[in-house]
Design a protein that fits this description.
Blueprint (H helix, E strand, L loop, with lengths): L4 E2 L9 H4 L12 H18 L4 E6 L2 H12 L5 E6 L2 H12 L3 E6 L8 H10 L3 E7 L1 E2 L4 E2 L2 H10 L4 E4 L11 H4 L3 E5 L10 E6 L1 H9 L11 H10 L12 H17 L1 H21 L15 E5 L6 H12 L1 E2 L1 E2 L8 E5 L7 H17 L15
Parallel strand pairs: 1-12, 3-4, 3-5, 5-8, 8-9
Antiparallel strand pairs: 2-10, 6-7, 9-10, 11-14, 13-14
Helix pairs in contact: 2-10, 5-6, 10-11, 11-13, 12-13
Bound molecules: pyridoxal-5'-phosphate.
């Protein structure tokens, strides 16, 4: 199998040293040896989430844990407010509808952030809204939404908030307790730099009060957080979850979390900021413009406008075939109009970024543009 450098917005390339943990012999998901690993992993995740809330790990993609959040917090017929500015915001609406929830939607243009002010107004207008759900890093457009401000508004009104931090947790600051986030969801295969399979979800006391006040939502079993809590209490000492855990993935996740935390969150975030500037500047030097304004652009995924006469799909294929680098195109209506470059995991390394920028230079030359070797690096230290 050919190996590619993944610079897509997830899943990300895992560092070889960390990836090696996937080959640990299969462990049972209970008993004293395992409990030590599991407990430390949860502790590390709580440090990363900056929370003292309950936090669970489930074998599921990010969407699975989002399903657990919606289905556990809200009963059929209840209303949830979803401010959206892209594909993953739309996904939250679909999940809500899947549980028979009524959706109140605030739609913002692609490439623009959602605003706390609009959320405040809507909450004032519609008093029956039971929760707000929002994407932190809108991976489809490279916009980082102002979750801190939005959570300030929801907390002002004592409405719980679900945050899709699937592509942001571990890459940018997101202090769950300080910002007052009720249900916060992420996955192992984006900013946590490990292979896909596990999701993490934190649950605030307010969320628990709401969840436990409703006897029966008829919202399934595996993704019902009440079942997770029952096992966390009743089987606390040896098996604090209702099902089998993805043990090899969690062992790998722990190795990655230890490394991130040993390095320090501040330094870890600073590196993403730094490398995202390199990518942005490099593309800018070649004549590209960003899709999202710098004021709210995400450092974790760059959405870049296509240039006239430079077909995006052809460039993506060229980078893959000729340079072994994978990036992504736009989703839905942005297909062909933008390309997206991930800056998570190994993608945020000098090696990957230089290979990518030289690859783009190479493509532009093939297309007849006058681009000197290393032109993308102008003005970089
Ligand atoms: C990747 C992503 C998802 C979907 O995650 P899956 O693991 O594929 O279910 C949801 N929301 C955001 C913001 C994402 O970036």
């Amino acid at each position: 199998m050919k190996r590619y450098k993944l610079m897509i917005p997830g899943p990300v390339d895992t560092d070889g040293e960390i990836l090696a943990y996937m080959a640990t012999p299969t462990m049972p998901h209970y008993g004293p040896e395992w409990m030590e690993i599991y407990t430390e992993t949860i502790d590390c995740l709580k440090r990363l989430f900056q929370t003292e809330n309950d936090l669970y790990l489930m074998a599921a993609s990010g969407t699975g844990a989002l399903d657990a959040a919606f289905g556990s917090l809200l009963a059929t017929g209840e209303k949830v407010l979803v401010p959206t500015n892209g594909y993953f915001g739309q996904r939250l609406i679909s999940i809500a509808r899947g549980y028979g929830l009524v959706t109140s939607i605030l739609e913002f243009p692609l490439g623009q952030p959602v605003t706390a002010e609009a959320v405040r107004t809507r909450l004032r207008e519609e008093k029956d809204i039971q929760a707000v759900a929002v994407v932190h890093n809108e991976t489809s457009t490279g916009v980082l939404n102002p979750v801190k401000e939005i959570a300030a508004v929801t907390n002002e009104r004592d409405v719980p908030i679900i945050v899709d931090a699937v592509s942001s947790m571990g890459g940018v600051p997101l202090p769950v307790d300080e910002w007052g986030i009720d249900l916060c969801i992420t996955v192992g295969n984006k900013c946590l730099e490990t292979p896909p399979a596990v999701s993490a979800i934190s649950i605030s006391e307010r969320a628990w009060r709401i969840i436990e006040s409703k006897e029966n939502r008829n919202h399934g079993w595996y993704l019902n957080l009440q079942n997770w809590k029952a096992y966390a209490i009743n089987w606390a000492s040896w098996h604090p979850y209702p099902v089998t855990m993805a043990t090899s993935n969690i062992i790998t996740l722990l190795a990655s979390l230890r490394r991130i935390l040993d390095r320090g969150l501040e330094e870890h975030f600073a590196q993403y900021t730094r490398t995202s500037r390199w990518i942005r500047k490099g593309l800018h030097n070649l004549g590209f413009e960003m899709f999202a304004d710098d004021a709210y652009a995400s450092p974790l995924v760059m959405a870049v406008k296509a240039m006239p006469d430079i077909p995006v799909t052809e460039m993506i294929k060229f980078l893959k075939d000729e340079h072994g680098i994978m990036i992504s195109g736009g989703l839905d209506e942005l297909a062909g109009k933008i390309f997206r470059v991930g800056n998570m995991g190994r993608a945020a390394s000098r090696d990957y970024i230089l290979s990518f920028l030289f690859g783009v230079e190479d493509f532009l030359r093939r297309k007849g543009l006058d681009v000197a070797v290393g032109q993308s690096l102008a003005g970089m230290d």
